[in-house]
Amino acid sequence: MTTKSAMSRAQIQQQKVKSTLNTIVNLFKNGDVPKAISIAVFPPYANIPSTSWSLANRLIMISNDTNDSRGFRQWQKIRRKVKKGAKCFYIISPKMVKKTIDKVNKTTGETETIEKKIIVGYIPVPVFAVENTDGEKLEYEPIELPKLPLFDKAKEWGISVCGVNFMGLYYGSYEQRGSRETIRLATPSEKTWFHELSHAAHSRVVKNLKRGQDPYQEIVAELSAQVLAQLVGTQVESSLGNSYKYIKHYADEMNQTVERGCLSVISDVEKVLNLILQ
Ligand SMILES: [Zn+2]
Question: This protein's superkingdom (predicted)?
């Protein structure tokens, strides 16, 4: 049975999730995403809870102008108290549900029942910034930055990289034929290289990339490239132009909200960056 107050609580939760996701949408609108992600990819300290958060949640934290935020009880645990009257902000946690699906096995022709975990929504989780807490002194452990041999990554993945002349039509391309992968570059621009390498990484994340210029895949590759350029690049590049417009277009096509569109981009970018920077 659903009571009246429980229903309105769910509505309030939904509202909080929506406004939290809006933080990310606004990053895209303002074009601040690559810079924000490059800050969020390497959290500043090794021993804080947000280090293990999703990239989306770390972006939400950074947008709230803090480097360390935790739940009320997490602060209590390390003998710090949330200051009186301090306001929390929300991060989001996926609400997973187990679902059984009947699937026909192509080789045996038999119907198999598989259990799958799917995300059915998001729950807002309140956290407080360190600046809003008092108490025992904090001990921060700095994070060690890895060396970033990106060319070695292509070698490791068995991708051949070559220079070509596309007659000004493209700057670069990533192609996958069977098990053969090729990156072709018509420019010495690092960002083009990062863009194509990101496509290669994305193909490892989603298994079957769409052929051609899929707007969603382009956003993931371009955003990842921007972040890589900021993290390991040596050349100055311009900012991401129409990513928001693309995401909106893609979201409309998929009957998705812009919030979900941005969130799914962020989560794919996170996987791409993790694979490349591993
Ligand atoms: Zn591309």
Answer: Bacteria
